[in-house]
Design a protein that fits this description.
Elements: H1 2-19, H2 36-41, E1 47-50, E2 58-64, H3 68-79, H4 83-94, H5 98-107, E3 111-114, H6 119-125, H7 129-141, E4 149-151, H8 163-169, E5 175-177, E6 185-193, H9 197-208, E7 213-221
Parallel strand pairs: 2-7, 3-6, 6-7
Antiparallel strand pairs: 1-2, 4-5
Helix pairs in contact: 1-6, 3-4
Length: 222
C-alpha cells in the first residue's frame, strides 16, 4: 500500500510540475523553490543545546524553524511532496555538517536512529521524512542507520497542538522498540524539534531497551 501511495504521489508531482510553476521561496522569482542567487546567500546557522531534555544529552540542529526559507522548504517537502525541496536541503545540510560530525566523533556514537511515522501517516505521505534524513546523516557520517523503533498509535499532527497538548499526548508513549540489540550510544533523527516531547518519548523507550546515551539531530528547531 505504501508503495502504491508513493507511486501515485510521484504521478501527482509530475503532473503538478507540468501545470504549476515553482517560485523561489525567498524572492518569488519563477523557476525553482530556491533560485541560485538566493541559495548562495542563504546560510542557515547550526546550533547545539546541552541537556535539552531529561533523557537527551545534546541536540544539534542546522537551522531555526523561524527562518522562512527553512520552514517553506520543509513544508514543501513534507506536506506538498516536492522532492526538489529535499534536494535543496541536502545541499545546504551537507555543507553545514561539521557540528554533527564533531558530536558523533567526540561521543563515539554507534548508530543513527530515525523517529518513525505511524504506518497510517506513512501511507498518506508516501515516505518517512525522518528515515530519509537518517539515511542521509548515516551516509555523511559513515554510521549504520538502524530502524529500532515503531510507532504503535497515531498521535495526530503535533504542529497543530499547543505545547501542553504535545506533552500530554506523549505521556503514554506511542513508541516501542523492535526486538534488536540496542546500541549504547545513539543519535536520534527527526526533521523538526518543537517542544522535544516526541524525541523524549522515543529516547525513553530506547533507554529502557538498553541505550546509555542518546543525542539528537534535526534539520530545524522551532
Amino acid at each position: 500500500m505504501a508503495g502504491m501511495t508513493s507511486f501515485l504521489r510521484k504521478i501527482w508531482r509530475s503532473a503538478g510540475d507540468a501545470v504549476f510553476p515553482r517560485f523561489c521561496v525567498a524572492c518569488k522569482k519563477e523557476g525553482s523553490l530556491l533560485c541560485e542567487p538566493c541559495a548562495n546567500q542563504w546560510q542557515p546557522e547550526s546550533r547545539l543545546a546541552l541537556d535539552p531534555s531529561d533523557v537527551i544529552c545534546e541536540h544539534v540542529w542546522s537551522s531555526a524553524y523561524a527562518d522562512p526559507i527553512t520552514r517553506e522548504l520543509i513544508c514543501s517537502w513534507k506536506y506538498y511532496f516536492d522532492a526538489s525541496a529535499w534536494e535543496i536541503l541536502k545541499k545546504k545540510l551537507g555543507s553545514n555538517f561539521t557540528r554533527v560530525s564533531d558530536l558523533i566523533a567526540r561521543e563515539r556514537i554507534d548508530a543513527v536512529v530515525p523517529i518513525p511515522l505511524h504506518d497510517e501517516r506513512l501511507c498518506e505521505r508516501g515516505f518517512d521524512q525522518a528515515e530519509t534524513l537518517a539515511r542521509f546523516v548515516a551516509k555523511q557520517t559513515k554510521l549504520p542507520c538502524r530502524q529500532l523503533l515503531i510507532r504503535t498509535r497515531k498521535t495526530g499532527k503535533q504542529a497543530e497542538r499547543t505545547e501542553d497538548e504535545r506533552k500530554s499526548e506523549m505521556k503514554d508513549t506511542p513508541f516501542e522498540t523492535l526486538q534488536f540489540e540496542i546500541p549504547k550510544r545513539i543519535i536520534l533523527i527527526d526533521d523538526v524539534w518543537t517542544t522535544g516531547s516526541t524525541a523524549s518519548a522515543a529516547a525513553r523507550v530506547l533507554k529502557a531497551g538498553g541505550a546509555e546515551k542518546i543525542f539528537m539531530y534535526t534539520i530545524a528547531k522551532g
